[in-house]
Amino acid sequence: MEIRFHGRGGQGAVTAANLLADAAIREGKYAQAFPHFGAERRGAPVVAFARISDRPIEIHSRIKNPDIIVVLDPRIFDLVNVADGLKPGGIVVANSTVRRVEGYTNYCVDATGIARRLGLVISGWPVVNTTMLGALVRATGIVSLDSILGVVRENFRGKLGEVNSRAVLEAYESARRC
Amino acid sequence: MVVRSLTGNYAVAYAVKLARVQVVSAYPITPQTTIVEKLSEMIEKGELKAKMVRVESEHSALATVFGAASGGARAFTATSSHGLLYMHEVVWWAAGSRIPLVMAVVARSIGPPWNIHVDHQDIFDQRDTGWIIGVAQENQEVLDMTLQAFRISEDPRVYLPVMVGLDGFILSHTRAPVDVPDQDLVDEWLPPRRQPYVISPETNVVMGNIAPDEVHYLMRYSMHEAMERAKRVIEEVDRSYAEVFGRSYGGLIECYKCDDADILVVITGSWSGDAKHAADRLRSIGINVGVARVRFIRPWPRERLVEIARDKKLVIVFDRAVSMGSLGPLFMEVSSTLYPYGTSLAGVIAGLAGVDVSYEDFERAIKTLVSKLEEQGRLYIPQFWLFPEGFESEEKRLEVARKWL
Hints:
The complex is a heterodimer of chains A (178) and B (405).
Chain A: E1 2-8, H1 13-26, E2 30-36, E3 45-53, E4 68-71, H2 76-79, E5 91-95, E6 105-109, H3 111-118, E7 121-122, E8 125-126, H4 129-140, H5 145-155, H6 158-174, E9 176-177
Parallel strand pairs in A: 1-4, 4-5, 5-6
Antiparallel strand pairs in A: 1-3, 2-3, 6-9, 7-8
Chain B: E1 2-7, H1 8-18, E2 23-26, H2 33-44, E3 51-54, H3 58-70, E4 75-79, H4 81-86, H5 88-96, E5 102-107, H6 121-124, E6 132-135, H7 139-153, E7 162-167, E8 175-180, H8 183-189, H9 213-245, E9 253-256, E10 263-267, H10 272-283, E11 289-294, E12 296-298, H11 302-309, E13 314-319, H12 329-338, E14 345-349, H13 359-376, E15 380-385, H14 394-404
Parallel strand pairs in B: 2-3, 2-4, 4-5, 5-7, 6-7, 10-11, 10-13, 13-14, 14-15
Antiparallel strand pairs in B: 1-8, 6-12, 9-11
Helix pairs in contact in B: 1-2, 1-7, 3-5, 7-9, 10-13, 11-12
């Protein structure tokens, strides 16, 4: 299973991919998570990748034909073709209440709203990575909710862990087909 | 043992900790930096009892660990690309002094133009320095090879420093499951540090003074002999590691479906995984491909390669570096090794500056070369440039040249 995350530099797309891989590894699966660093700076569109498999993963090249895409920022839809190479029957999970990609199964979640309400804001930027993982789990069941919560608590200690866990849960509950 | 989700860089740091390294010195450079950041964190938390020496450059970083190692400490540094070039003088000093050391090299292209992505130009630039040079394919192997590097370097038959190469970003910043061995097992497996001499305030040792020309000549010969002996040591270490930790990589060369292959790919680094995947897919359409993944480019596994490759219908070398004005460096090694046997050869140059090479790209290149072999009966194509997607035509390349070059 191949997943591509689209975000803006600073939103946490790379961390989202990492946490997803951590959760899969926690479940005894094989996984890879890797960023693609171009000349991007904070605010520019970025991508991060994850692969999950029951067998060891030997491929290291970039993901061209993902099964799932996760869009962390609704404005990305206007900047890049997020569905580029997405497999037929693929799933789109977007931080948006309206944006969708025709011809695919779409899930929407207001991740920005959840992040703002919970105070997951850094330098004025809502950080939606953990929130989007909650929505991704709801949409795909690619890993279990418990595994995601486990790695979130492991990576963010104390209060920050609690807030991020709540973000995961709220997104899990509010994500819907759109 | 515990399976952790670790980047390649963290896998290096865990191995360094398990080896109970006593002195670390480094200067930050992407994509190496997170190795020493992690080590620094381990030292700060008291998990690793080592001294971290902050310096102003890579030249000083290697000089510092060279000094510490000469004084008897197990020492480690890590670098990449321009950092490695900057320390190049000391790279020779450390090897020529026969001081065991381990350095991680996170492979990255060399500027200009500025670029942080992987190719093997920086690693191959170290080819003649007298360091043993290993290159890993996966994060697990990065950890295992780093641990093995200490044992190889400190073996009295060798006494040469070792570089552990790992591909920038593709391994260094990619998380994957890594089985981290127990400290007790590592303590039992890795003997206490040995080295040919130790400098101390009480002993008078002169290092690096002028020697008669003949002595210098003989020292080169002795390093060369140590390299030859290191081949056996590397194979032994691979076997003994497997006995204790359950993982073997085949020593100098990992053979993936080599035995019954007609076409053999020779390659090194993380993209070997993509090449293996391509081999499997080509086998399903009747093209019998195997992959010989070179794990150590120094010492060069001449004898092993001859065994594996001499009778193949075609040997295709994939280089992620080029010796401008000559050929791909791995191709040069392979072609000189197989020269007496007249094996058909092709050298593909691809993936420079981190240009993505997928298993489909491998398949296309291999298919093209196999069909040329079928047309011609025997093949010798020393350079076959696999240009980035969209730049296959001369016209397109000229367009870029007019704009950029």
